[in-house]
Amino acid sequence: MAVTDQIPTNSGFHARSTGAEVLAEHELAGKTAIVTGGYSGIGLETTRALAAKGVAVIVPVRSPAKAEKSLEGIEGVRLLPLDLAALGSVRRFAASMLDSLQRLDMLINNAGIMACPEARVGPGWESQFGVNHMGHFALTTALLPLLERTPGARVVALSSTGHKITDIRWDDIQFERDAYNKWTAYGQAKTANALFANGLSRRLKGAGGSAFAVHPGGIFTPLQRHLPKEEMIALGWLGEDGEPSELAKAGFKSPEQGCSTTLWAATSPALAGKPGVYCEDCDIAAPTDPESPTARYRGVNAHACSDESAERLWSISEALLAEA
After folding, report:
1. d(CA 158, CA 132)
2. Is 186 a catalytic residue?
3. What is the domain count for the chain?
């Protein structure tokens, strides 16, 4: 898969489609899904939409009390402990899934952190790379036997237009040499999410599974919790009064709309035979057009679609996990 494979399908959906609309024609009763971060923001709406279609949804939780409150009244949801920043927790969760599930139709790697202060997780990994990429890498690779025995299994990795900030910092992934920059670290993690879907798609192909990366769109969710109001004003997301700016009102999605590309990637027959692609607005994203006024927030950059980079990152991630 390369950037030349990024050809929109004209899906019939759009930026404002909701998750419920995307799933309306699908028969999903009896299927099983795991949604990381499935009790907050767009993850909560992903869980809600899947459960409404009869999917048995497992939501890994780091904050049980918060999760129980958020998911109250949603039928068919099971909560189990998981902390993506702690490999022991990831391994225990995966082992329990391998023991208790017969199938896993959808693994939606939705959880993440954004632009947070410098921190280290696991054996010293930079936290955004460690949680957003390595935590999900450890989880997904541990669940591969379950995915491989489920016909048509799909894995969805939540990337972001933030991938445009930077390629993988191959010579200093963990910011051990250079000063930490929260946005560069976020961009690297989102590029890693896209490359992970690329690499995973080849590993699932023999069993009939597939993987996709998605950009959900701009959405106000708890993901922004580390950003001070002043920074969001400077970014143009908020006005001086602290309310959403006109730019945000025009371009940002609701959480119900924000989950739609995830759910489209998890279910759409239009993606058959197109493994590893990067999606946005309920379709395959076109390559970034550098001449377009929307280049900063639409399309996918070539560095996030490179088979060579995906395999290089996969090897590095395997080595990091083996050393942890």
Report:
1. 9
2. yes
3. 1
